[in-house]
């Protein structure tokens, strides 16, 4: 088991590049199962969740080779089951359901794994696919979906704009007969990136990134070349690290518009922000508390950025309040921050952060992906040495995090 060892208190300065978005790469890798021929994906993040998706593709009979940040996938799906071991590696393995059902008319898989953020049901996925003509039964813990005559388009109104369900329906609808309409669809930019990829492959998807998405079924899809969008949560993590260390960073290769709900929070904290083209420059001053941060579906403040922003606000003057509206158990990083000297009280969905003067190094464990990144952010700005264990959670979504921060002055090694 590896750890990250961080000697805190060094200002981060310099330039740092954002990698491709995990939450875009994973559904696009699943989408390749719907296509015939070759897909070339540029800007693919080198993270363990991508390896997990590649293992599923290989199991299905496809080949996937990652060379630097370019993934080449040759799609030729031979089977439609995903073993429990592969499903348990990450939550987004569930997105293969829509692709396999659309392509082969069947799919057998177990409930997905991933970060333990409280109950993460898949009822919206299942009910939507049923409305499109799929039947489902549970056999010894495996969900078996069938649509022997193929799927049909349907008019769907989602009870909540679930990201994963929107993606699954989009994938299932591409090769379905007729038109599918998704109302109250998730509007995250990663949904638009997935639609972009699918449309390049020959799909007919309109409205992705908006509340209503319309998909007209086509007879086949052919692989294409696509560049994965920048990771807005990684960008928010770097901004938090600049704030936490009192540093100044030029963060490049990002999409400024995707950070519309995040940048004002750093401005309220007292950071100076200047954005131009695909870069954001952030210079941290003395940090001030932020009155209220509510996590909500896009375009509001993202739940995935809650933990990293909290890590920097732990040292801001005054009281900051978080309300987590997406997941029921997304404050698992709080005990480790408290061990480092933070003053944070959690009551249900609310976390109240009383800023302290300093955080101090401690031996702590990452409990989930973004919570783990928050501990790195806190440790970079803390006094003394922090040792973070269970870093496999962090590697699921960050490319070589120790190298990234070392290059801008962080003292961080993996051992
Ligand atoms: C995706 C992102 C994740 C992000 C989340 C919310 C990927 C790979 N992961 O996860 O990083 O934190 O969006 O922005 O893109 N829900 C149901 N029933 C369902 C589906 C979801 O009740 O059928 C609930 C979930 O329990 C959760 C909420 O809806 O409380 C949000 O889930 P969803 O939007 O589906 O998130 P994911 O796709 O799992």
CATH superfamily of the largest domain: Enolpyruvate transferase domain
* Fraction of residues in H or I helices: 25-40%
Rg:
21 Å
Low-confidence stretches: none
Report the strand count: 23
Strand content: 25-35%
Distinct helical segment count? 14
Detail the topology: elements first, then pairings.
Elements: E1 4-7, E2 13-17, H1 22-31, E3 37-42, H2 48-60, E4 63-67, E5 70-75, H3 84-87, H4 96-104, E6 106-109, H5 123-131, E7 135-139, E8 142-146, E9 155-157, H6 163-174, E10 179-183, H7 189-200, E11 204-206, E12 212-216, E13 225-227, H8 232-245, E14 248-252, H9 263-268, E15 272-276, E16 279-283, E17 292-295, H10 306-313, E18 319-324, H11 334-339, E19 343-347, E20 350-354, E21 363-365, H12 369-380, E22 385-389, H13 392-395, H14 401-406, E23 411-414
Write structural notes for this entry.
The structure is a single chain. With 415 residues, the protein is α+β, with helices and mostly antiparallel strands. The chain folds into two domains: 4-18 and 235-414, UDP-n-acetylglucosamine1-carboxyvinyl-transferase, Chain, CATH 3.65.10; 22-227, Alpha-beta prism (UDP-n-acetylglucosamine1-carboxyvinyl-transferase, Chain). The chain is 30% helix and 26% strand. It contains 14 helices and 23 strands. It has helices at 22-31, 48-60, 84-87, 96-104, 123-131, 163-174, 189-200, 232-245, 263-268, 306-313, 334-339, 369-380, 392-395, 401-406; strands at 4-7, 13-17, 37-42, 63-67, 70-75, 106-109, 135-139, 142-146, 155-157, 179-183, 204-206, 212-216, 225-227, 248-252, 272-276, 279-283, 292-295, 319-324, 343-347, 350-354, 363-365, 385-389, 411-414. A four-stranded mixed β-sheet has the order 21-22-1-23. The relative contact order is 0.16. The mean pLDDT is 96. Uridine-diphosphate-N-acetylglucosamine (UD1) binds at residues 23, 26, 91-92, 119-125, 160, 162-165, 303-304, 326-327.
């Amino acid at each position: 088991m590896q750890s990250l060892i961080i000697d805190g208190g060094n200002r981060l300065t310099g330039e740092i590049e954002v990698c491709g978005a995990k939450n875009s790469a994973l559904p696009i890798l699943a989408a390749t199962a719907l296509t015939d021929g070759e897909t070339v994906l540029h800007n693919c993040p080198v993270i363990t969740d991508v390896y997990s998706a590649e293992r599923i593709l290989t199991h299905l009979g496809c080949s996937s080779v990652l060379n630097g940040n370019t993934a080449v996938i040759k799609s030729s799906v031979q089977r439609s089951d995903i073993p429990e071991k592969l499903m348990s590696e990450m939550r987004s393995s569930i997105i293969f359901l829509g692709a396999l059902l659309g392509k082969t008319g069947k799919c057998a898989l177990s409930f997905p794994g991933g970060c333990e953020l409280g109950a993460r049901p898949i009822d919206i996925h299942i009910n939507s696919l049923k409305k499109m003509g799929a039947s489902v039964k549970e056999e010894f813990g495996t969900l078996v979906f069938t649509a022997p005559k193929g799927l049909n388009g349907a008019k769907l109104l989602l009870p909540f704009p679930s990201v994963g369900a929107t993606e699954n329906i989009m994938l299932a609808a591409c090769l379905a007969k007729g038109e599918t309409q998704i109302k109250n669809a998730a509007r995250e930019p990663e949904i638009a990136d997935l639609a972009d990829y699918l449309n390049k492959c020959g799909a007919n998807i309109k409205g992705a990134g908006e509340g209503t998405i319309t998909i007209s079924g086509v007879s086949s899809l052919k692989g294409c070349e696509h560049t994965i969008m920048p990771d807005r949560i990684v960008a928010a993590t770097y901004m938090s690290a600049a704030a936490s260390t009192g540093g100044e960073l030029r963060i490049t290769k990002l999409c400024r518009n995707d950070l519309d709900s995040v940048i004002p929070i750093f401005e309220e904290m007292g950071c100076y922000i200047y954005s131009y083209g695909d870069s954001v420059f952030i210079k941290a001053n003395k940090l001030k508390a932020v009155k209220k941060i509510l996590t909500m579906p896009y375009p509001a403040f993202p739940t995935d950025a809650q933990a990293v922003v909290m890590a920097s606000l732990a040292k801001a003057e005054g009281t900051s309040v978080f309300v987590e509206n997406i997941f029921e158990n997304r404050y698992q990083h709080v005990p480790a921050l408290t061990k480092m000297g933070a003053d944070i009280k959690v009551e249900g969905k609310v976390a109240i952060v009383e800023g302290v003067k300093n955080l101090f190094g401690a031996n702590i464990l990452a409990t989930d992906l973004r919570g783990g990144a928050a501990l790195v952010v806190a440790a970079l700005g803390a006094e003394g040495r922090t040792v973070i264990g269970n870093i496999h959670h962090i590697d699921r979504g960050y490319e070589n995090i120790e190298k990234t921060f070392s290059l801008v002055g962080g003292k961080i090694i993996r051992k």
